Amino acid sequence: MTIKITNKLFLFIWIKHLSRMIIRATLGCMKLADAVTLLGKGGPFRHLATMARNNNFFFRQLFDSDSSTYTYLLGDTSSKEAVLIDPVIEHAERDATLIKDLGFKLVYSMNTHMHADHITGTGKLKSLLPGSKSVIGKASGAKADIHLVDGDIVKFGSHQLLASATPGHTNGCFTYISHEQCMAFTGDALLIRGCGRTDFQEGSSQTLYKSVHERIFTLPDHFTLYPAHDYKGLTATSVGEEKKYNPRLTKSLEEFVKIMDNLNLPYPRKIDESIPANRVCGLFLNKTLYIHNTLKR
Questions:
Q1: Which of 46, 74, 121, 286 could hold 87 in an S-S bridge, CB 3.0 to 4.6 Å?
Q2: Per-residue model confidence (pLDDT) at position 29
Q3: Are residues 98 and 235 in the same domain?
Q4: Are 160 and 205 members of one domain?
Q5: In which domain, by residue range, is 21 found?
Q6: 296 part of a folded domain
Q7: CA 275 to CA 141: how far, in whole Å?
Q8: Same structural domain for residues 35 and 64?
Q9: How many helices (H) and strands (E) does the chain have?
């Protein structure tokens, strides 16, 4: 009798331990406590399809040294559908070549906002990779094939990004969140130990502070954050890091506004060419080059 009870106890402990290992492996980016909470809300079968980290996810971070802009290529290695976040026009050929080399089909080229420091590559990529569509937030006022509003879902293969409105740097800023992969692409709303400026393009320090604290800092601490820029060679951060170490956004709202009001930053070097071009999906530069080349002949 004692042996039977011991065996049952051993079996119970073994199954419990095995379950925990399965949870850790399947919900790789989630904390164990979060996984247990999920199991307590209807069992694993209802949640794992959307929350489990898939092994067919492709991720590549690219860089433009002139504007210190990061471009992100995300793809589904099974369906071969891919999206590109914040492409730069000077690197459109580079990005198109990489996408072709990897066997991907570009579904969407997306902007986190209407940039002031470079011209987007979305328009040029549409000509290089026919069938791809340009995407930007509706509030930006820029032309695109698809205009996002808060809460929209962008799908590519079995993966998806949640479009979360995070205005403040500009009125049309979006953060793209992958809950499956525990990552978010914050644009200029939140930088590594910093944030985007708020003194142009209908920017607002109060709005930016609210966006970051309510839309980004409310994500789990272990979520990895990928900004649109970095000027010190850093490539990524996390929600937990920024909540603890960001020198601006750890302050009170009043202190944050005061900091932003006294940055005294220079006028953006490329804003006068970037904004008009980006209002028309980056096609302004293409048109200018076309006219120039035609006259040259």
A1: 121
A2: 58
A3: yes
A4: yes
A5: 2-46
A6: no
A7: 11
A8: no
A9: 10, 12
